[in-house]
Amino acid sequence: MMLDVRRINACGLNLEGCGVKKIIVEHLKYRYPQSTELALNDISFEAEEGEKIGFIGCNGSGKSTLCQALTGLVPHFYRGAYGGHVTVDGMEVMSSSISEIAVKVGIVFQNPFTQVTGAKETVYDEVAFGLENLGLPRGEIITRADAALKLLRIDRFKDQAPFSLSGGQMQRMAIAGMIAMRPRIIVLDEPTSQLDPQGSDEVYQALDDLSAQGLTVVLTEHKIEKVARYCDKILILQNGRSMAFDTPAQLFSAKNTEAWGVRPPVYTRVCRELLRPPAGVYPVTLAEAGEALANWEVIL
Amino acid sequence: MISVSRLHFSYDGKSEVLSDINIDIDQRSTAIIGQNGAGKTTFIKILKGLLKPGSGKVTILGEDTAKRSAAQWAGVIGMVFQNPNDQIFKKTVLEETLFGPLNIKMMPKAARENAMEALSAVGLADKTDSNPYDLNLSDKKLLCIASVLAMNTRVVIFDEPTIAQDWQGMERIKNIIKALKVQGKLVMTVVHDMDFVAECFERVIVFNEGKVLLDGSTDYVFTQTDILRRACVSPPHIVQLGALAGLRRVCLTEDEFVLAYREKRCEELGVS
Ligand SMILES: Nc1ncnc2c1ncn2[C@@H]1O[C@H](COP(=O)(O)OP(=O)(O)OP(=O)(O)O)[C@@H](O)[C@H]1O
Ligand SMILES: Nc1ncnc2c1ncn2[C@@H]1O[C@H](COP(=O)(O)OP(=O)(O)OP(=O)(O)O)[C@@H](O)[C@H]1O
Ligand SMILES: [Mg+2]
Ligand SMILES: [Mg+2]
Cα of B166 to ligand 1 centre, how many Å? Predict the structure, then answer.
């Protein structure tokens, strides 16, 4: 059944009542060169068009490595030992080049500093850089770069030198450069770690809008409240293994995620302590917790 | 302990990044928050002596900073950089951690002891021989923290210490900050993680477009939602939940929340 869907999707067709699979990861194993341990150990999951997937887990659990595996940097750039299959938008990563994949999959790295090319003198040129590489006409480049700079609220700084930006402004620039490319799949490795709280919410809101337009979003995040609020599904990684793949509500209600080094959102934690859930499912967002605290039976 | 008066600063001589900052930093642990580009990093770089004030005066422990060079202040004031790549430059984790203490002329034996103790505190004691550039971002950040701790300075300033940290890393950093307070050090941090601010800091200063918009105790500041909004800040998750649940007092931690909510429900139900 699963294979059939994939074959149909590869032809660009949709199956009635069944989402288009944009990412298919099957039994992915990966070891960095010179390393003795697997950084990814038998990972399988799928993401549909318009879905938002969050990778969470401890430091070193493999989140960034899995992100790189979706862009082809693992294994094509890093090399190392690789097994299993990764398919992005119908394209098998192993048999495609990084530049072929880059047209479909965009990435924002964990440290925005490493994203700056260093070759461009202004923020504007930095954001337009990827668009120039796509060979787009001049007018299109200007339209897209301007829109991305505005979306991330850094249009005021477009003539400034990239390395003179503040940390958060630099992170905004990295996101802007990627969104301007309009890939079908976007991968963001801790995209809001240096953003002010409202900026962080704005970015998540923008990702919501993009996914509503059919983009598939994959991100990593340590702020569990954000993942629980914005992601459709969460993949928990521990030591390179996949421990769970489920909706936030299922995951944090049913499972003892602490054992995997992940604390549930604070909303879930206090409700677990204080309330008896009528249907066995605990709240994971602020709004849900507010409802529950107002209406559920309290444990005194 | 640190006093800042009529401080102005500009990078290009045209647009002011800091304008008329007046702050007295006392013994309370202090968090500086505010929108991206508000001037937070610039401000603490001035305190550290890495940037010279455009005009105005900064005194540390009663002494005008202009009277000594940044190098001379290094033994008094330690700072963890926002971007670890700006701080790290040695070939091994141990050398990196030893650099600061040796640079301020600490005796080699003491320097080594301090370095090892600091590396243990951040959980990097088993990585002394690793190359800092090979570390993950979270470990790089912890290494930068250890390098500053090892100098045993009177004032410790962190710029975004919690970037990339998991739950355990966060707990480590919280414990470090609490320990520094117990040792009587002056602790300041610039940070966007409001949950962390609520748990660890007594005073909050809100920067907005190069000015101080709000300054007060943590529980007070986090009730000023309208002012915070202007600085692109939202209150900590637990404070937002407290407001939604109609709690009468501001709860900064989960434990406080659980207590206050139980009290409220008991009252409503008429149980004691
Ligand atoms: N370039 C590399 N070469 C060798 N090993 C690496 C490399 N990058 C990561 N690793 C190792 O692979 C494992 C997974 O690392 P990864 O960076 O994917 O974790 P992560 O979940 O993203 O962690 P964090 O939360 O700190 O970002 C770790 O053991 C790490 O040390
Ligand atoms: N070297 C520089 N040259 C010119 N402008 C600079 C330089 N460094 C910083 N700026 C500008 O000064 C302003 C304040 O920057 P600063 O790094 O102090 O902000 P911040 O409050 O720390 O922000 P963030 O939360 O993003 O880290 C920003 O608009 C930034 O672009
Ligand atoms: Mg990572
Ligand atoms: Mg900063």
Answer: 13
**Residue B192 pLDDT level (bands cut at 50, 70, 90):** very high
Same-domain status, A294 and A168: no
User: What's the whole-number mean pLDDT along residues B140-167?
Assistant: 96
pLDDT at A60 exceeding the cut of 70: yes
Cβ neighbors of A290 (< 8 A, separation 6 or more) are: B241, B244, B245
Does A191 lie at the interface with B, CB-CB under 8 angstroms? Answer: no
Q: For a substitution probing ligand 2, which of B7, B8, B11 has the most ligand atoms within 8 Å of its CB? A: B11
The phi, psi pair for B84, rounded to 5°, reads -55, -30
Spatial contact of A49 and A106, defined as CB atoms under 8 Å apart: no
Are residues B116 and B125 in contact, defined by beta-carbon separation less than 8 angstroms? yes
Residue B72 corresponds to which tokens in the numbers above? 């001379």
Provide the 8-state DSSP code for A190: S
Return d(Cα A281, Cα B45) in angstroms, integer. 48
Identify the three-state secondary structure at position A155. Answer: helix
The reply to whether A74 and A182 lie within a common domain is yes
pLDDT in tens, A195-248: 999 999 999 999 999 999 999 999 999 999 999 999 999 999 999 999 999 999
Contact indicator for A243, A236 with CB cutoff of 8 Å: yes
Which residue, judged by its Cα, is nearest atom 29 of ligand 2?
Answer: B37
Q: Where in chain B is CATH 3.40.50.300?
A: 2-233
CB atoms within 10 A of CB B93: 28
d(CA A227, CA A248): 8
Q: Do A240 and A290 have their domain in common?
A: no
* Pair of tokens at residue B186: 């002056």
Instruction: Check whether residue A293 and residue A235 sit in a common domain.
Output: no
- Write out the residue range of the structural domain in which residue A172 sits: 5-249
A165 lines ligand 2 (CB under 6 A): yes
Q: Is B208 in the pocket of ligand 2 (CB under 6 A)?
A: no
CATH of domain B2-233: 3.40.50.300
Q: What share of chain A is helix, strand, coil (3-state, %, to 5)?
A: 45, 25, 35
**Are A14 and A124 contained in the same domain?**
yes
- Number of H helices and E strands in chain B, helices first, is 11, 10
pLDDT at B256 over 90: yes
pLDDT, tens digit, 9 for 90 and up, residues B12-61 = 999 999 999 999 999 999 999 999 999 999 999 999 999 999 999 999 98
Closest to A52 (Cα-Cα) out of A22, A74, A81? A22
State residue B13 phi and psi, 5-degree precision: 80, -5
Distances (CA, A) of A220 to A211, B30, B139, B202, B253: 16, 29, 17, 31, 25
Count of domains observed in chain A: 2
A63 touches chain B (CB under 8 A): no
User: What is the average per-residue pLDDT within B232-253?
Assistant: 96
Tokens 């101080």 found at: B212
**Amino acid identity of A36?**
T
Tens-digit pLDDT profile for residues A150-181: 999 999 999 999 999 999 999 999 999 999 99
> The whole model's pTM is what?
0.93
Q: How many angstroms separate the CA atoms of B210 and B39, rounded? A: 5
- Eight-class DSSP state of A112: G
